[in-house]
Specification:
By secondary structure, this protein is of the alpha/beta class. It has five helices and 16 strands. It has two domains: 96 residues, Elongation Factor Tu (Ef-tu), domain 3 (Beta Barrel); 148 residues, 3-Layer(aba) Sandwich (Rossmann fold), CATH 3.40.50.80.
């Protein structure tokens, strides 16, 4: 079930010059629709004449008791810049929840590695929260070019061991996430979201080591419901819409994608 609804911004947090968090509550105080980690919303951008299409943004966190939904947003263009100018008390219109999320109702796995880079960090917080509540031991590996490009890292600490990798060595391990010592350990499952080269490297390594792995693709998504076909990706099972069939895919069916 999907819904188009207005939400009210009840909190806004800035994370350096590139990222910000919006904490939203449903304007009509109706219950939040069940949302899986890894799903996303389509945000209408008001007050910006040059922005006609909604912007897809991952669900960063959900607090059912407080009735709030949080979005971690990276400023990359006119649409997200306009969203960064919104203030507490203003309304924002969402289509939600969209897409196929991460497999979080795990029965047998006891350990999971969550690998995020850049804005791909966003959907992993809610995933880590849900996994911990289900007794899964989580290691969270976050990467970026510099320390300032790895926002909200402290928010993950209640849910598992947090490891950091930066290209310039400004924080944590110097190098790519796949070169971090934590990445070489054995896990029951790996989840990843971030830049495509990073996710492909993670997927290739997981396949070689026989570790189950899910990737959350970040293709351009205009409609969010599989109508416009602009986000289609080639899989071992044929072409699939990332917004509707994903954004999360099991790499079992993605060899065409990660092998190149």
């Amino acid at each position: 079930m999907k819904e188009i609804s207005d939400f009210t911004i009840i909190e806004r947090r800035q994370h350096g010059p590139h990222y910000f968090t919006l904490v939203l509550r449903h304007s009509h105080l109706t219950p939040l629709l069940p949302t899986m980690p890894g799903q996303f919303v389509e945000v209408r951008v008001d007050g910006q004449p040059g922005v006609m299409l909604r912007r897809p943004i991952s669900v960063h966190d959900v607090d059912p008791e407080a009735g709030t939904l949080s979005l971690l947003v990276q400023v990359v263009g006119q649409g997200t810049r306009r969203l960064s100018q919104l203030a507490v008390g203003e309304k924002i219109n969402l289509v939600y929840p969209l897409g196929h999320g991460f497999t979080s109702d795990l029965r047998s796995p006891t350990s999971a590695l969550l690998v995020g880079g850049g804005a791909g960090i966003a959907p992993l917080l809610y995933l880590a929260k849900v996994l911990k509540a289900r007794g899964v031991r989580c290691t969270i590996l976050l990467g970026g070019r510099t320390a300032e490009l790895i926002p909200v890292r402290d928010e993950f600490r209640p849910y598992g061991e947090v490891c950091i990798a930066t290209d310039d060595g400004s924080l944590g391990h110097k190098g790519l996430v796949v070169s971090h010592p934590a990445f070489a350990e054995q896990y029951d499952i790996i989840y990843t979201c971030g830049p495509t080269p990073m996710m492909k490297a993670v997927a290739r390594s997981a396949a070689e080591r026989g570790i189950r792995c899910e990737v959350s693709l970040e293709n351009m998504m205009a409609c969010g419901v599989g109508a416009c076909l602009c986000c289609v990706t080639d899989t071992d099972q044929g072409h699939r819409c990332v917004c509707k069939d994903g954004p999360v895919f099991d790499i079992t069916n993605m060899k065409k994608w990660y092998a190149n």
